[in-house]
Amino acid sequence: MDEAGAIFKVLVLNEISPKGLGRLPPQRYVCGRDIACPDAVLVRSADMHAMTVPPSVRAIARAGAGTNNIPVAAMSARGVPVFNAPGANANAVKELVLAGMLMAARNLARALRFVDALAGQSDDVEKAVEGGKSAFAGFELQGQSLGIVGLGKVGSLVADAAIKLGMDVLGFDPEITVDAAWSLPSQVRRAASVAEVLRGGRFVTLHVPLLPATRDLVNADNLSLMPRGGVLLNFSRQGVVNEAAALAALESGQLGAYVCDFPSPALLGHERVICLPHLGASTCEAEVNCAVMVADQLRDFLENGHISHAVNFPSIRMSRESAFRVAIANANVPNMLGQISTAMAKAGLNIHNMVNHSRGEMAYTLVDVDSAVRDALLADLAAINGVLSVRYLPRLD
Ligand SMILES: NC(=O)C1=CN([C@@H]2O[C@H](COP(=O)(O)OP(=O)(O)OC[C@H]3O[C@@H](n4cnc5c(N)ncnc54)[C@H](O)[C@@H]3O)[C@@H](O)[C@H]2O)C=CC1
Ligand SMILES: O=C(O)C(=O)COP(=O)(O)O
Q1: Given pLDDT bands bounded at 50, 70 and 90, which one contains residue 2?
Q2: CB-CB contact of 234 with 257 (8 Å)
Q3: Ligand 2 lined by 281 (C-beta under 6 Å)
Q4: Using a 6 Å cutoff on CB, does residue 214 contact ligand 1?
Q5: Does 95 lie in the same domain as 81?
Q6: Which of 207, 211, 237 to mutate to test the pocket of ligand 1 (most atoms within 8 A of CB)?
Q7: How many CB atoms lie within 10 A of CB 242?
Q8: Cα-flanking dihedrals φ and ψ of residue 266, to 5°?
Q9: Count of domains forming the chain
Q10: Distance 392 CA to ligand 1 centre (A)
Q11: Which residues are in the ACT domain (predicted)?
Q12: Cβ(240) to ligand 2 under 6 A?
């Protein structure tokens, strides 16, 4: 379908798995990189802080976990939900963390560089290998201690895998969810602070979002708490570790290795830094899982006004018993429902069903009415102080 004929237009800012895009039927959706007046944005890691989000945008869907590349607060103020895909790429990250621990413990990056440098010396390769390998002797993961900061979708999978490898696991998460707590093996010991995790782990791995509170979470003050020669793994975000402090700790021998998924000019070329090119979620499985999950959430929002897994809105759904629905994002303040229902009554509409959920400062209301809604009512609703966005969603099928 061409852009003009589509009911919904989705601006796609990164490569999104075609299996996910396939969930948005072409009879209703047009998706692309060059879309004017999009209804929604589909994104992975593209930096949306640097762009002007068109006023037509009603939702942003992040095919992944972290939303620090999206201006979430500004979107909340516009009544625009930001969806993500909790857990959809967690196994991929877990497996890369295991790879990172093995790479550090067995000196694999340096060993590979050594072998690469033998290219062209065909006569002497075996001799060079046997003569050089002792420089790369490492240690085993079994029996080692692992500290985990952040026991959400990724952290709890890492904890489980590490226990299965025979590691001694210590974890910290001040806001652990009940689900995550249930999914943790009983052997995981509970720490009361980041400092306690750093003190207790020969390996320490970070699985927190980048927030003002987690910026420089690991820094010059607390890196010194780690056992000398420890290994720090950062598959969270670059800003969670103070890079200058990590480099200084590598220089002093306090850190044995820094493994991270976020290369930067300062880190490149360092002997004991293992940098991967932000590969945590780059498996076919994770890419499909994330794209399918957010495309389904986005479609349900655009067509029915339902919300699941938005980082800035409450979850909400209401079965469709009438063909005429209005979805309203509003500030979570007194008398919003009163004003909304008064405006509807004035317009002569009978409310068939209504649901309102709130989360922090945001609230969201779905109202099904018995007859069609005119533009004048939508304008009246939008003019109510505290209403952030209004959408009319007549049933499509
Ligand atoms: N390298 C990559 O490709 C990927 C990186 N990520 C990063 O990993 C982060 C975590 O991902 P998930 O586990 O899926 O998210 P999640 O939301 O399931 O878990 C994050 C956990 O961190 C905890 N937390 C927040 N602040 C904390 C603090 N100060 N100390 C300790 N715990 C704290 C939360 O309570 C939550 O349980 C993402 O936000 C993203 O930045 C996620 C997926 C792929
Ligand atoms: O899901 C996340 O938070 C990630 O960091 C993955 O990023 P990506 O989708 O691979 O650009």
Answers
A1: low
A2: no
A3: yes
A4: yes
A5: no
A6: 207
A7: 19
A8: -65, -30
A9: 3
A10: 35
A11: 325-395
A12: no
Residues 263 and 308 in one domain: no
Domain of residue 14, CATH code: 3.40.50.720
Q: Is residue 135 domain-resident? A: no
Whether ipTM tops 0.85, in short, is: yes
Residue 164 maps to a domain: yes
Inside any domain, residue 192: yes
Print the domain residue range for 219. Answer: 90-101+141-275
39 and 170 within one domain: no
In a domain, 188, yes or no: yes
Find out whether the beta carbon of 287 lies less than 6 Å from any atom of ligand 1. Answer: no
| Residue 178 Cβ < 6 Å to ligand 1 | no
Give residue 397's pLDDT band: very low, low, confident or very high (50, 70, 90): confident
- Angle (CA) 140 144 149, round 5°: 125
175 in the same domain as 288: no
- Assess whether 84 and 176 both reside in one domain: no
Among the residue ranges 92-101, 118-127, 183-192, 327-336, the one predicted with the least confidence is 118-127
95 and 207 within one domain: yes
Cβ 61 under 6 angstroms from ligand 2: no
Do 17 and 147 lie in one domain? The reply is no
Give the confidence band of 5 by pLDDT, cuts at 50, 70, 90: low
Residue nearest to atom 11 of ligand 2 (CA): 45
| Residues 212-221 pLDDT 10s | 999 999 999 9
The ligand 2 atom nearest the CA atom of 85: 1
DSSP calls for 298-330:
HHHHHHH--B-SBSSS--B-----SSEEEEEEE
* Residue 156 in contact with ligand 2 by CB distance below 6 A: no
Q: Which residues contact residue 355 at a Cβ distance below 8 angstroms, ignoring those fewer than 6 apart?
A: 316, 318, 365, 366
Residue 123 confidence class, pLDDT cut points 50, 70, 90 = confident
**Rounded to whole angstroms, how far apart are CA atoms 324 and 247?**
60
CA of 278 to the centre of ligand 2 (A): 8
Q: From atom 10 of ligand 2, which residue's Cα is the shortest distance away?
A: 281
Q: Are strands 273-275 and 255-260 parallel, antiparallel or unpaired?
A: parallel
